[in-house]
Amino acid sequence: MDIVLLLPGQGSQKVGMGRDLFDASSAAREAFETVDTAIGSALSALAFEGPEEELRRTHNAQPALLAHSAAAWSMLAHELTPHVRAAAGHSLGEFSAYHTAGSFALADAARIVRRRGELMYETGTSRPGAMSAIVGTLTSPIEELCAQASAEAGLVVPANYNSPEQVVISGETAGVERAMTLCKEAGAKRCLPLPVSGAFHSPLMQPAVQGLASVLDSATMHDPRVPVFANVDGAAITSAEAARPLLVQQLTAPVRWTLVMRNLVAAFPDALFVELGTGSVLSGLARRIAPGTRTMTAGTLADVETLLELVHAEGHSHAH
After folding, report:
1. Which structural domain, as residue segments, surrounds residue 102?
2. Which end of the chain is more exposed for a tag (fewer CB within 10 A), N or C?
3. Does the predicted TM-score (pTM) go above 0.90?
4. How many whole angstroms separate alpha carbon 22 and alpha carbon 16?
């Protein structure tokens, strides 16, 4: 049985995330406590109890999502590791993916993503921007519409290629607003402004680059046990040396999630794609990008138990 791990990104967080894992499993409890200790803050209490607007802040949401993914992985790793062929994570989730692949110890990953969230938040405050999801099929390439809006109003770029029917744009507020108008004229079904604190995955994030590079340089990073497919170019990354610059570049480059998923499905056509952590956004995108893809979520205790039963059942059927 082949398994590919998918690690969710910012926007998936919700109050109560991971609570049932924490209550049921000492391994999951240890994962949350490791993150709390690493960042010197009662993050698990915030994840479990809110308030939501505090949890949504970039520097809280990112380590909270990492902690939930890590807690789920701590309950599954023993059984799943022999079956895992690759991993990928959306934006922040790429750091969670490297943790599951053994590249980062959890405490190091927590410190890195906490700092990443702080840097992104600070940059968003000093260089305000906006993001918007563009849904539907456009009559002109999104890159051309963004280039036109940039020339007319303010810098805007494609930031997340989430599926063939959904691209998120990011940049200066006037540029994003102009691009939304152009996208509607080009046939977009919906243009939804996102509740974010900055223009992520755009050149406006450049001031955060140096800080992230230095925190990554100071952390121990091992080669991943399985390839991690990179947001920046969709390539299968097998060394820490190749991973580090891509994790920094990711701040200002678009998340090419459609390409990542197509490359994963091409490499592992029969794999079960397991979304590890909060929500089911990536499972939904997987089925839209590659219809027929087998997906499961592993964020709740019930999910984790169902997945373990499935792995056992498939193991026994091969044994006989």
Report:
1. 3-125+204-319
2. C
3. yes
4. 11
Domain's final residue, options 197, 220, 254:
197
Same domain, 37 and 171: no
Catalytic residue among 170, 201, 202, 283: 201
Do 304 and 253 fall within a single domain? yes
What's the average model confidence in pLDDT over 29-49? 98
281 and 152 fall within a common domain? no
Spatial neighbors of 316 by CB under 8 A, at least 6 apart, are none
**Number of folded domains in the chain?**
2
Model pLDDT for residues 140-173, shown as the tens digit of each residue: 999 999 999 999 999 999 999 999 999 999 999 9
- Please name the residues in contact with 47: beta carbons below 8 A apart, sequence gap of 6 or more: 13, 15, 16, 17, 18, 19, 32, 55, 64, 67, 68
Biggest distance spanned by C-alpha atoms of the chain: 67
Instruction: Give yes or no: 132 in active site.
Output: no
Q: Are residues 115 and 211 in the same domain?
A: yes
**Cα-flanking dihedrals φ and ψ of residue 104, to 5°?**
-120, 135
Is residue 75 within 8 A of residue 28, CB to CB? The reply is yes
Q: Identify the residue whose tokens are 């592992």.
A: 268
For strands 294-298 and 272-276, give the pairing: parallel
Regarding whether 165 and 42 lie in a shared domain, the answer is no
Domain CATH number, residue 62: 3.40.366.10
- Active-site residue, from 12, 44, 91, 202: 91
Asked about 91 being catalytic, the answer comes back as yes
Residue 107 CB contacts under 8 Å (≥ 6 apart), including other chains: 34, 35, 37, 38
